[in-house]
Amino acid sequence: MKKFKITGIIATMLLAVVALSACSSGSAGKNGGADASDTLPTLKGDDKINRATRFYAGIDKSGIGMSEENAKAWDGYSMEIKGLLDISSKTRSQFDSLVRADFSDFRDKVDLVFYPFSGADFLYPTTIFPDADTYILFGLEKTGSPFSTDIKTDFAQYESYRKALSSFLRLSYFITKDMKNDMDNDNLDGTCPVLSMLMATAGYEIISIENMKIDDSGKLSQADGTGNVMRYKFFKAGSKHEQTLYYLSADVGNPRFDPKVKKFIEVSLPGHTVATYLKAASYLMHMPGFTMIRDYIVNNTQYIVEDDSGVPYKYLADKFDITLYGIYKRPLAVFTDKCIQPDLDSVYKANVSSVKPLTFRIGYNNPSNLLVGRRKGLK
Q1: Whose CA is closest to 52, among 190, 172, 145, 182?
Q2: Could you tell me the pTM of the whole model?
Q3: Eight-class DSSP state of 331
Q4: What is the pLDDT of residues 60-99, one digit of tens each?
Q5: DSSP summary character for residue 184
Q6: Going along 147-228, which residue ranges are E strands?
Q7: Dihedral sign of CA atoms 314, 316, 319, 322 in order
Q8: Where would I find the beta strands (DSSP E) of the chain?
Q9: Cα separations (Å) of 305 from 54, 116, 127, 278, 373?
């Protein structure tokens, strides 16, 4: 959660109040003996949006009028999705265990997660940083539209949903070349439905989904029709913590970097404790055409969690204290030799005893690698 600085006499007065409260309550706990969430309003999701999303995610068909044939098709689809989720859940559970053990110094400090080249991946940033206030995701795939609350039960659509989720839930990443067709067809419109389904499978309630547009100053306003930004307001079921996710449909290659998108990023990150997450990022920031987004990450994030497809090691080594996990292997053959990092390979080999194990697949290679960077000088 975001921390605000209070200085001078205000800070002195506040400390005095906190001390008195702690003494009178007989507890000097983090919240002065009281659960801060008790004072927060109860959150409520949009019943129609969540009902439709749970149905399309294969979670719940109760109360939905269906023919026997369509009900049987939904049951089969639901079993397939649950099987895929079991694979994904095992990986994410192992990742969560690693984060709890090794990221405790900064996990709760991060209030904004910046996730370039994400596609529709909602699950991993919320696994690593579940309590962040804001998540900013972007990719080339269009935002699309929410599921219609007028629920359709034609079983032909289920195959589109299963196909869109299958590789991600099995492998932990979306396959770039498949996403264009998987998320833009007669049954599935953009990333919005996929993000919604993943939210539902992880036990989140959606408050609202809004199409947004960015003005020249980087500020957002509601779009007339479909914009290039989708804003979700959501919360974990049972929680009183409202969270926000932005998905931007954007090309951030140097010559194509939309000035409005660039401005939105520039005004959104300052003032926050930012963690950048990069996974299966196609080694784009190894290339000369993606230096702008790469440099912005290096200069404006406090923490970075990535596999070797993200920011090259050589741009991080001087600015971050780095911890390495897993095994560094040559990138998949589909990527060019320019994606190989001899310096990272050397660091792995020279520090075998200090490289930490990675017991799960994350990103392209299996076995996988992970780099965690903490900006030097942070307290």
Answers
A1: 145
A2: 0.87
A3: P
A4: 999 898 888 889 999 999 999 999 999 999 999 999 999 9
A5: B
A6: 204-214, 220-222
A7: negative
A8: 112-116, 134-139, 204-214, 220-222, 229-236, 243-249, 274-278, 303-306, 320-326, 369-375
A9: 31, 12, 12, 6, 7
